[in-house]
UniProtKB/TrEMBL annotation:
The gene is LOC100941573. It comes from Otolemur garnettii. GO terms for cellular component: plasma membrane. It is a multi-pass membrane protein. InterPro entries: GPCR_Rhodpsn (IPR000276), GPCR_Rhodpsn_7TM (IPR017452), Olfact_rcpt (IPR000725), Olfact_rcpt_6C-like (IPR047132). This is Olfactory receptor. One of its GO terms (molecular function) is G protein-coupled receptor activity. It is found in: Cell membrane. Odorant receptor. Residues 40-290 form the G-protein coupled receptors family 1 profile domain. It comes from the Eukaryota. Keywords: Cell membrane, G-protein coupled receptor, Membrane, Olfaction, Receptor, Sensory transduction, Transducer, Transmembrane, Transmembrane helix. Belongs to the G-protein coupled receptor 1 family. The chain crosses the membrane at residues 25-50, 59-81, 101-120, 141-161, 197-221, 242-260, 272-292. The lineage of its organism: Eukaryota, Metazoa, Chordata, Craniata, Vertebrata. The keyword Membrane applies.
Amino acid sequence: MLRNSSSVTEFFLLGFPASQEVHRVLFATFFFLYSVTVMGNTVIIVTVCVDKRLHSPMYFFLGHLSVLEILIISTAVPFMLWGLLLPKTQIISLTACVAQLYLYLSLGTSELALMGVMAVDRYVAVCNPLRYNIIMNSHTCLWVIIVSWVFGFLSEIWPVYATFQLTFCKSNILDHFYCDRGQLIKLACDDTLFTEFVLFLMAVFIILGSLIPTIVSYTYIISTILKIPSASGRRKSFSTCASHFTYVVIGYGSCLFLYVKPKQTQAAEYNRVASLLVLVVTPFLNPFIFTLRNDKFIQAFGDGMKHCYQLLKD
Protein backbone atom coordinates (compact mmCIF):
# COMPACT_ATOMS: atom_id res chain seq x y z
CA MET A 1 0.00 0.00 0.00
CA LEU A 2 1.45 3.35 -1.05
CA ARG A 3 1.53 5.99 1.65
CA ASN A 4 1.85 9.64 0.69
CA SER A 5 1.27 12.32 3.29
CA SER A 6 0.83 15.02 0.62
CA SER A 7 -2.60 16.04 -0.66
CA VAL A 8 -1.63 15.35 -4.27
CA THR A 9 -4.16 13.05 -5.93
CA GLU A 10 -3.37 13.97 -9.53
CA PHE A 11 -0.63 15.55 -11.64
CA PHE A 12 -0.79 18.01 -14.49
CA LEU A 13 1.71 17.22 -17.26
CA LEU A 14 3.17 20.22 -19.09
CA GLY A 15 4.11 18.04 -22.06
CA PHE A 16 5.72 20.19 -24.76
CA PRO A 17 5.38 23.91 -23.95
CA ALA A 18 4.78 25.46 -27.38
CA SER A 19 2.15 27.11 -29.58
CA GLN A 20 -0.91 25.28 -30.88
CA GLU A 21 0.61 25.13 -34.38
CA VAL A 22 3.73 23.41 -33.05
CA HIS A 23 1.50 21.01 -31.09
CA ARG A 24 -0.28 20.04 -34.33
CA VAL A 25 3.05 19.33 -36.04
CA LEU A 26 4.26 17.29 -33.05
CA PHE A 27 0.96 15.38 -32.94
CA ALA A 28 1.20 14.47 -36.64
CA THR A 29 4.87 13.44 -36.24
CA PHE A 30 4.41 11.32 -33.12
CA PHE A 31 1.16 9.79 -34.40
CA PHE A 32 2.98 8.70 -37.56
CA LEU A 33 5.90 7.27 -35.56
CA TYR A 34 3.55 5.47 -33.16
CA SER A 35 1.44 4.00 -35.96
CA VAL A 36 4.46 2.76 -37.92
CA THR A 37 5.99 1.33 -34.73
CA VAL A 38 2.88 -0.66 -33.81
CA MET A 39 2.29 -1.88 -37.38
CA GLY A 40 5.96 -2.69 -38.04
CA ASN A 41 6.46 -4.64 -34.83
CA THR A 42 3.12 -6.41 -35.31
CA VAL A 43 4.29 -7.51 -38.77
CA ILE A 44 7.44 -8.95 -37.19
CA ILE A 45 5.44 -10.83 -34.52
CA VAL A 46 2.95 -12.28 -37.01
CA THR A 47 5.63 -13.24 -39.55
CA VAL A 48 7.77 -14.96 -36.90
CA CYS A 49 4.75 -16.87 -35.54
CA VAL A 50 3.40 -17.94 -38.93
CA ASP A 51 6.51 -18.83 -40.96
CA LYS A 52 8.19 -22.05 -39.82
CA ARG A 53 11.50 -20.95 -41.37
CA LEU A 54 11.71 -18.31 -38.64
CA HIS A 55 11.12 -20.74 -35.77
CA SER A 56 14.63 -20.36 -34.37
CA PRO A 57 15.98 -18.75 -31.16
CA MET A 58 17.07 -15.54 -32.96
CA TYR A 59 13.57 -14.83 -34.31
CA PHE A 60 11.89 -16.11 -31.14
CA PHE A 61 13.74 -13.43 -29.17
CA LEU A 62 13.06 -10.84 -31.89
CA GLY A 63 9.33 -11.56 -31.62
CA HIS A 64 9.39 -10.94 -27.87
CA LEU A 65 11.46 -7.79 -28.38
CA SER A 66 8.76 -6.52 -30.76
CA VAL A 67 6.06 -7.26 -28.16
CA LEU A 68 8.04 -5.26 -25.59
CA GLU A 69 8.49 -2.37 -28.03
CA ILE A 70 4.75 -2.13 -28.67
CA LEU A 71 3.98 -2.22 -24.94
CA ILE A 72 6.70 0.30 -24.02
CA ILE A 73 5.63 2.89 -26.59
CA SER A 74 1.98 2.37 -25.59
CA THR A 75 2.60 3.19 -21.92
CA ALA A 76 3.06 6.91 -22.59
CA VAL A 77 2.68 7.92 -26.25
CA PRO A 78 -1.15 7.62 -26.60
CA PHE A 79 -1.59 9.83 -23.51
CA MET A 80 1.05 12.22 -24.88
CA LEU A 81 -0.83 12.42 -28.22
CA TRP A 82 -4.06 13.19 -26.38
CA GLY A 83 -2.27 15.99 -24.52
CA LEU A 84 -0.93 17.47 -27.79
CA LEU A 85 -4.41 17.39 -29.31
CA LEU A 86 -6.12 18.84 -26.23
CA PRO A 87 -3.36 20.55 -24.16
CA LYS A 88 -5.52 21.36 -21.13
CA THR A 89 -6.58 17.74 -20.59
CA GLN A 90 -3.16 16.30 -19.68
CA ILE A 91 -4.15 15.45 -16.12
CA ILE A 92 -3.22 12.04 -14.71
CA SER A 93 -4.33 10.59 -11.39
CA LEU A 94 -1.83 9.43 -8.78
CA THR A 95 -2.84 5.79 -9.34
CA ALA A 96 -2.48 6.07 -13.11
CA CYS A 97 0.89 7.78 -12.63
CA VAL A 98 2.10 4.88 -10.46
CA ALA A 99 0.89 2.35 -13.04
CA GLN A 100 2.45 4.23 -15.97
CA LEU A 101 5.86 4.60 -14.32
CA TYR A 102 5.89 0.98 -13.12
CA LEU A 103 4.94 -0.46 -16.52
CA TYR A 104 7.44 1.74 -18.36
CA LEU A 105 10.35 0.84 -16.06
CA SER A 106 9.42 -2.87 -15.82
CA LEU A 107 9.04 -3.33 -19.57
CA GLY A 108 12.25 -1.37 -20.17
CA THR A 109 14.16 -3.56 -17.70
CA SER A 110 12.80 -6.72 -19.37
CA GLU A 111 13.93 -5.34 -22.72
CA LEU A 112 17.46 -4.69 -21.44
CA ALA A 113 17.65 -8.25 -20.11
CA LEU A 114 16.43 -9.56 -23.47
CA MET A 115 19.01 -7.49 -25.35
CA GLY A 116 21.74 -9.13 -23.27
CA VAL A 117 20.26 -12.55 -24.04
CA MET A 118 20.17 -11.77 -27.77
CA ALA A 119 23.87 -10.84 -27.66
CA VAL A 120 24.73 -14.16 -25.99
CA ASP A 121 22.58 -15.95 -28.59
CA ARG A 122 24.60 -14.33 -31.41
CA TYR A 123 27.83 -15.29 -29.60
CA VAL A 124 26.82 -18.95 -29.46
CA ALA A 125 25.68 -18.87 -33.12
CA VAL A 126 28.96 -17.38 -34.37
CA CYS A 127 31.50 -18.87 -31.96
CA ASN A 128 29.93 -22.31 -31.30
CA PRO A 129 27.83 -23.03 -34.40
CA LEU A 130 28.05 -26.82 -34.08
CA ARG A 131 26.65 -26.75 -30.53
CA TYR A 132 24.16 -23.93 -31.18
CA ASN A 133 21.02 -26.11 -31.40
CA ILE A 134 22.04 -28.01 -28.27
CA ILE A 135 22.80 -24.92 -26.17
CA MET A 136 19.95 -22.73 -27.43
CA ASN A 137 17.24 -25.41 -27.36
CA SER A 138 13.54 -24.58 -27.02
CA HIS A 139 13.53 -25.30 -23.27
CA THR A 140 16.44 -22.90 -22.65
CA CYS A 141 14.90 -20.17 -24.81
CA LEU A 142 11.56 -20.39 -23.03
CA TRP A 143 13.11 -20.17 -19.58
CA VAL A 144 15.33 -17.27 -20.61
CA ILE A 145 12.28 -15.34 -21.84
CA ILE A 146 10.32 -16.08 -18.64
CA VAL A 147 13.25 -14.97 -16.45
CA SER A 148 13.65 -11.75 -18.48
CA TRP A 149 9.99 -10.80 -18.07
CA VAL A 150 9.78 -11.77 -14.39
CA PHE A 151 13.06 -10.02 -13.55
CA GLY A 152 11.82 -6.81 -15.18
CA PHE A 153 8.55 -6.72 -13.26
CA LEU A 154 10.03 -7.74 -9.89
CA SER A 155 13.11 -5.49 -9.97
CA GLU A 156 11.08 -2.27 -10.40
CA ILE A 157 8.68 -2.78 -7.48
CA TRP A 158 10.91 -1.10 -4.89
CA PRO A 159 12.06 1.85 -7.08
CA VAL A 160 8.45 2.79 -7.88
CA TYR A 161 7.32 2.18 -4.29
CA ALA A 162 10.17 4.36 -2.95
CA THR A 163 9.35 7.15 -5.41
CA PHE A 164 5.70 7.36 -4.37
CA GLN A 165 6.55 7.17 -0.66
CA LEU A 166 7.88 10.71 -1.06
CA THR A 167 5.76 13.71 -0.04
CA PHE A 168 4.83 15.76 -3.10
CA CYS A 169 4.08 19.13 -1.52
CA LYS A 170 5.89 21.59 -3.80
CA SER A 171 3.50 21.31 -6.72
CA ASN A 172 1.46 18.86 -8.77
CA ILE A 173 2.83 20.11 -12.11
CA LEU A 174 5.20 17.70 -13.88
CA ASP A 175 7.43 19.28 -16.51
CA HIS A 176 7.26 16.24 -18.79
CA PHE A 177 4.93 14.34 -21.14
CA TYR A 178 4.67 11.29 -18.83
CA CYS A 179 5.23 10.46 -15.15
CA ASP A 180 9.01 10.72 -15.21
CA ARG A 181 10.74 9.64 -12.01
CA GLY A 182 13.24 12.50 -12.03
CA GLN A 183 10.53 15.14 -12.32
CA LEU A 184 8.49 13.44 -9.59
CA ILE A 185 11.49 13.55 -7.23
CA LYS A 186 11.79 17.28 -7.99
CA LEU A 187 8.34 17.83 -6.47
CA ALA A 188 9.27 16.07 -3.20
CA CYS A 189 9.87 18.03 0.01
CA ASP A 190 11.73 15.11 1.62
CA ASP A 191 15.48 14.57 1.62
CA THR A 192 15.80 12.43 -1.51
CA LEU A 193 19.60 11.98 -1.48
CA PHE A 194 19.56 8.40 -0.19
CA THR A 195 16.66 7.36 -2.45
CA GLU A 196 18.38 8.83 -5.51
CA PHE A 197 21.64 7.08 -4.63
CA VAL A 198 19.93 3.69 -4.31
CA LEU A 199 18.05 4.27 -7.58
CA PHE A 200 21.37 5.14 -9.23
CA LEU A 201 22.97 1.91 -7.95
CA MET A 202 20.02 -0.14 -9.18
CA ALA A 203 20.18 1.52 -12.61
CA VAL A 204 23.90 0.75 -12.81
CA PHE A 205 23.28 -2.87 -11.83
CA ILE A 206 20.44 -3.38 -14.34
CA ILE A 207 21.89 -1.51 -17.31
CA LEU A 208 25.53 -2.51 -16.92
CA GLY A 209 24.44 -6.01 -15.87
CA SER A 210 23.03 -6.57 -19.34
CA LEU A 211 25.57 -4.38 -21.16
CA ILE A 212 28.64 -6.28 -19.91
CA PRO A 213 27.61 -9.68 -21.38
CA THR A 214 26.73 -7.81 -24.58
CA ILE A 215 30.20 -6.24 -24.80
CA VAL A 216 31.94 -9.53 -23.94
CA SER A 217 29.82 -11.43 -26.48
CA TYR A 218 30.57 -8.98 -29.28
CA THR A 219 34.26 -8.93 -28.42
CA TYR A 220 34.39 -12.69 -28.99
CA ILE A 221 32.11 -12.42 -32.05
CA ILE A 222 34.30 -9.83 -33.78
CA SER A 223 37.44 -11.78 -32.89
CA THR A 224 35.95 -14.97 -34.36
CA ILE A 225 34.64 -13.26 -37.52
CA LEU A 226 38.02 -11.68 -38.26
CA LYS A 227 39.56 -15.18 -38.27
CA ILE A 228 37.23 -16.35 -41.06
CA PRO A 229 39.42 -16.69 -44.19
CA SER A 230 36.86 -15.80 -46.87
CA ALA A 231 35.56 -12.25 -47.31
CA SER A 232 32.04 -13.51 -48.11
CA GLY A 233 32.01 -15.56 -44.90
CA ARG A 234 33.06 -12.54 -42.83
CA ARG A 235 30.45 -10.36 -44.54
CA LYS A 236 27.67 -12.90 -43.91
CA SER A 237 28.62 -13.28 -40.24
CA PHE A 238 28.78 -9.52 -39.70
CA SER A 239 25.39 -9.01 -41.38
CA THR A 240 23.68 -11.39 -38.92
CA CYS A 241 24.97 -9.36 -35.95
CA ALA A 242 25.01 -5.81 -37.37
CA SER A 243 21.28 -5.16 -36.78
CA HIS A 244 21.40 -6.21 -33.12
CA PHE A 245 24.62 -4.27 -32.52
CA THR A 246 23.08 -1.09 -34.03
CA TYR A 247 20.05 -1.50 -31.79
CA VAL A 248 22.30 -2.01 -28.76
CA VAL A 249 24.20 1.23 -29.39
CA ILE A 250 21.00 3.31 -29.70
CA GLY A 251 19.16 1.60 -26.82
CA TYR A 252 21.96 1.55 -24.27
CA GLY A 253 23.19 5.01 -25.20
CA SER A 254 19.85 6.64 -24.40
CA CYS A 255 19.32 4.53 -21.24
CA LEU A 256 22.76 5.38 -19.86
CA PHE A 257 22.12 9.08 -20.48
CA LEU A 258 18.69 8.95 -18.85
CA TYR A 259 19.22 6.73 -15.77
CA VAL A 260 22.90 6.18 -14.90
CA LYS A 261 23.48 9.42 -13.03
CA PRO A 262 23.70 10.09 -9.28
CA LYS A 263 21.29 13.04 -9.54
CA GLN A 264 17.91 12.04 -10.97
CA THR A 265 16.51 15.57 -11.14
CA GLN A 266 18.28 16.89 -14.23
CA ALA A 267 16.86 19.57 -16.54
CA ALA A 268 13.47 18.71 -18.02
CA GLU A 269 14.61 19.48 -21.60
CA TYR A 270 17.34 16.81 -21.45
CA ASN A 271 14.93 14.33 -19.88
CA ARG A 272 12.39 14.94 -22.62
CA VAL A 273 14.92 14.37 -25.41
CA ALA A 274 16.34 11.19 -23.85
CA SER A 275 12.84 9.90 -23.05
CA LEU A 276 11.77 10.43 -26.67
CA LEU A 277 14.78 8.37 -27.80
CA VAL A 278 13.80 5.50 -25.46
CA LEU A 279 10.03 5.71 -25.85
CA VAL A 280 9.58 6.72 -29.49
CA VAL A 281 12.71 6.58 -31.66
CA THR A 282 14.13 3.19 -30.60
CA PRO A 283 10.81 1.27 -30.94
CA PHE A 284 10.25 3.00 -34.30
CA LEU A 285 13.66 1.94 -35.63
CA ASN A 286 13.32 -1.67 -34.40
CA PRO A 287 11.36 -3.05 -37.40
CA PHE A 288 13.73 -1.40 -39.90
CA ILE A 289 16.97 -2.33 -38.12
CA PHE A 290 16.05 -6.01 -37.79
CA THR A 291 14.35 -6.59 -41.16
CA LEU A 292 15.79 -4.42 -43.93
CA ARG A 293 19.10 -6.33 -44.09
CA ASN A 294 17.67 -9.70 -43.11
CA ASP A 295 17.17 -11.68 -46.33
CA LYS A 296 15.54 -14.60 -44.53
CA PHE A 297 12.90 -12.40 -42.92
CA ILE A 298 12.27 -10.43 -46.14
CA GLN A 299 11.72 -13.68 -48.03
CA ALA A 300 9.36 -15.00 -45.35
CA PHE A 301 7.43 -11.70 -45.32
CA GLY A 302 7.23 -11.66 -49.12
CA ASP A 303 5.91 -15.22 -49.21
CA GLY A 304 3.37 -14.33 -46.55
CA MET A 305 2.14 -11.35 -48.59
CA LYS A 306 1.82 -13.54 -51.70
CA HIS A 307 -0.17 -16.10 -49.72
CA CYS A 308 -2.51 -13.40 -48.38
CA TYR A 309 -2.97 -11.98 -51.88
CA GLN A 310 -3.86 -15.43 -53.23
CA LEU A 311 -6.42 -15.95 -50.46
CA LEU A 312 -8.03 -12.55 -51.16
CA LYS A 313 -7.98 -13.20 -54.91
CA ASP A 314 -9.70 -16.56 -54.52
